[in-house]
């Protein structure tokens, strides 16, 4: 992170991030306020409304609406002061962790939202751990401070202990619950006062010249001031100061306190992201890494979404640009197939709506409509045979056999399943023996989503049935040993949707047995998507 050359200003002003949280902590509300301050929407409340409209356009989302969970991720770009923010939405439900994981490969930072009354919840913890794997910088927003919340030190302690990360307060709350009046902005010595009457109003901000400034007493009732001064003294003694370097290497998170619903603390968080948040970072790739300032354009697909418009069977590949300056109409090489693609109608996810992208820079997310050529993990370059690495595919934890209601429609079923496999929504295995397909997912809810999408999008009723297998492992190793292994275990062998060989397992015992009997064969639970 240090000793990096200065980035071209257009790239340096980009902040590409995701929001991670436990359901209900306030991610949607915070997103809405981000867009409001980014000038992308005129009035709060439009994100939800817009979300609904988008959902009706892609009809499978009926189920998402019914269940009130988000199964799809999208991207939103908006300007904040001199910065361009790219917010990549992560699906909130725990069943979609693989999708979430891949989304996090496309961002440079994460904003972690926690509920001030609940602290670190299970889903926050899981998502945090994923960010940790990549040392992603994390900025924390402690939300719902307008309600009864936990003691500030308790919240900070809990984050430090549960997540093993240093926490540095960027602001400090004054008063609790009904008595919460605002925050002291530690980074800029300002008093921010919340307006409960107008939820969309930016807080009144008063410059303070240090904690003994008499202005504090003018705005803060005596009993709250005493407690605040006591706490902030203690905080200064006990808690670390913000170290920008530690933030960037993921070992420290600054925390802001606020209330997304009351638009309070949000602007300070955005300022923090702009000031301290990372610029577009170097992308790991083979045979060499990609630096954002490189002249040539490279990008990689981290998500594919099909049937965004049911009238056209289009798919949109979400591409994170890793380097260069992209212009519409450019011809890029699709490294996997070595074919050139003219990118004539790229989509930029400007928060207002989908819009044609005339240009984009390293750090941006663009959508490329295509007919299935682009898959998750694919790299696009200006000719160099380079492949982005680190986008994993996980072995599914649940397997079921999938059959078409009408046996004559098996071919259609195969097509539908392959499409979902390419989207990353499921793994599809074709066993060497027997008919039908075995579908693997990470969470049980995905079977329902798939069944309802296949019916809606392909007019094909399907049945998912219990399978004798419970998991799958990719097979690797010395070719002769692998061939021998496959020949002797045909009833367990299948090919995945990319044509790679997998070993279907019933019990951990199966995996242990292979380890014992075939020392030259390796079974793996993840594979790199390249
Ligand atoms: P999520 O996307 O993380 O699931 O959370 P979301 O923003 O939908 O917020 C969950 C609930 O918390 C919503 O209430 C929302 O209004 C509320 N909320 C968000 N921020 C704050 C805050 O700063 N203070 C308080 N008191 N509440 C907040 P809901 O009743 O589920 O929905 P709604 O009817 O208000 O839309």
UniProtKB/TrEMBL annotation:
SUPFAM superfamilies for the chain: EF-G C-terminal domain-like (SSF54980), P-loop containing nucleoside triphosphate hydrolases (SSF52540), Translation proteins (SSF50447)
Any one GO biological process: regulation of translational termination
HAMAP family: Rel_fac_3
Organism phylogeny: Bacteria, Pseudomonadati, Pseudomonadota, Alphaproteobacteria, Rhodobacterales
Lineage: superkingdom: Bacteria
InterPro entries found in the cross-reference section: EF-G-like_DII, EFG_III/V, G_TR_CS, P-loop_NTPase, PrfC, RF3_C, RF3_dom_3_sf, RF3_GTP-bd
Name used for this protein in its record: Peptide chain release factor 3
Localization of this protein: Cytoplasm
Amino acids binding GTP: 21-28, 89-93, 143-146
UniProt organism field: Yoonia algicola
Similarity-based family: Belongs to the TRAFAC class translation factor GTPase superfamily. Classic translation factor GTPase family. PrfC subfamily.
Gene, per the UniProt record: prfC
Entry keywords, A to Z: Cytoplasm, GTP-binding, Nucleotide-binding, Protein biosynthesis
Residues covered by the Tr-type G domain: 12-281
Cellular component terms per the entry's GO annotation: cytosol
Record's function text: Increases the formation of ribosomal termination complexes and stimulates activities of RF-1 and RF-2. It binds guanine nucleotides and has strong preference for UGA stop codons. It may interact directly with the ribosome. The stimulation of RF-1 and RF-2 is significantly reduced by GTP and GDP, but not by GMP.
Alphabetical list of PANTHER family matching this protein: PEPTIDE CHAIN RELEASE FACTOR RF3
GO molecular function (one): GTPase activity
């Amino acid at each position: 992170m240090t000793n990096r050359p200065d980035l071209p200003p257009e790239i340096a002003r980009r902040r590409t991030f995701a929001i991670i949280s436990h359901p209900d902590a306030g991610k949607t509300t915070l997103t809405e306020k981000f867009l409001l301050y980014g000038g992308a929407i005129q009035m709060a409340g439009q994100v939800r409304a817009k979300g609904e409209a988008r959902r009706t356009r892609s009809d499978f989302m009926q189920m998402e609406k019914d269940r009130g969970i988000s199964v799809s991720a999208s991207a939103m770009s908006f300007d904040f002061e001199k910065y361009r923010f790219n917010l990549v939405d992560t699906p909130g439900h725990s069943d979609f962790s693989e999708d979430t994981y891949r989304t996090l490969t496309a961002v440079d930072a994460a904003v972690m939202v926690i509920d001030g009354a609940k602290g670190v919840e299970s889903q926050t913890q899981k998502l945090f751990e994923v960010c940790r794997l990549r040392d992603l910088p994390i900025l924390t927003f402690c939300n719902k401070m307008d309600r009864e919340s936990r003691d500030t030190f308790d919240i900070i302690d809990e984050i430090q202990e549960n997540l093993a990360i240093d926490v540095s307060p960027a602001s400090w709350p004054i008063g609790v619950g009904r008595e919460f009046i605002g925050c002291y902005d530690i980074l800029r010595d300002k008093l921010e006062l919340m307006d409960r009457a107008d939820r969309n109003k930016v807080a009144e901000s008063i410059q303070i010249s240090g904690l003994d400034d008499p202005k504090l007493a003018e705005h803060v009732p005596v009993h709250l001031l005493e407690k605040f001064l006591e706490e902030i003294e203690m905080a200064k003694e006990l808690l670390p100061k913000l170290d920008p370097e530690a933030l960037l290497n993921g070992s420290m998170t600054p925390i802001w306190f606020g209330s997304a619903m009351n638009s309070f603390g949000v602007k300070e968080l955005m300022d923090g992201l702009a000031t301290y948040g990372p610029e577009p970072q170097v992308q790991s790739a083979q045979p060499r890494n990609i630096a954002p300032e490189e002249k040539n354009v490279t990008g990689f697909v981290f998500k594919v979404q099909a049937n965004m418009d049911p009238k056209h069977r289009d798919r949109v590949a979400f591409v994170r640009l890793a380097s260069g300056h992209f212009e519409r109409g450019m011809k890029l090489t699709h490294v996997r197939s070595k074919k050139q693609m003219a990118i004539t109608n790229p989509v930029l996810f400007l928060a207002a709506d989908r819009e044609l992208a005339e240009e984009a820079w390293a750090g941006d997310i663009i959508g490329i409509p295509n007919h299935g050529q682009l898959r998750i993990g694919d790299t696009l370059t200006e000719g160099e045979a380079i492949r982005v690495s680190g986008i994993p595919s996980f072995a599914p934890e649940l397997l079921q056999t999938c059959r078409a209601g009408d046996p004559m429609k098996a071919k259609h079923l195969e097509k539908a399943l392959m499409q979902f496999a390419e989207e990353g929504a499921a793994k599809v295995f074709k066993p060497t023996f027997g008919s039908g397909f075995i579908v693997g997912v990470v969470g049980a809810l995905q079977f329902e989503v798939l069944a309802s999408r296949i019916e809606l999008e392909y007019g094909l009723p399907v049945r998912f049935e219990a399978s004798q297998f419970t998991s799958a492992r990719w097979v690797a190793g010395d070719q002769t040993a692998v061939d021998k292994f496959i020949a002797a275990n045909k009833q367990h062998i299948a090919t995945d949707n990319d044509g790679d060989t997998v070993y279907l397992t019933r019990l951990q015992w199966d995996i242990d047995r292979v380890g014992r009997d075939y020392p030259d064969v390796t079974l793996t639970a993840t594979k790199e998507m390249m």
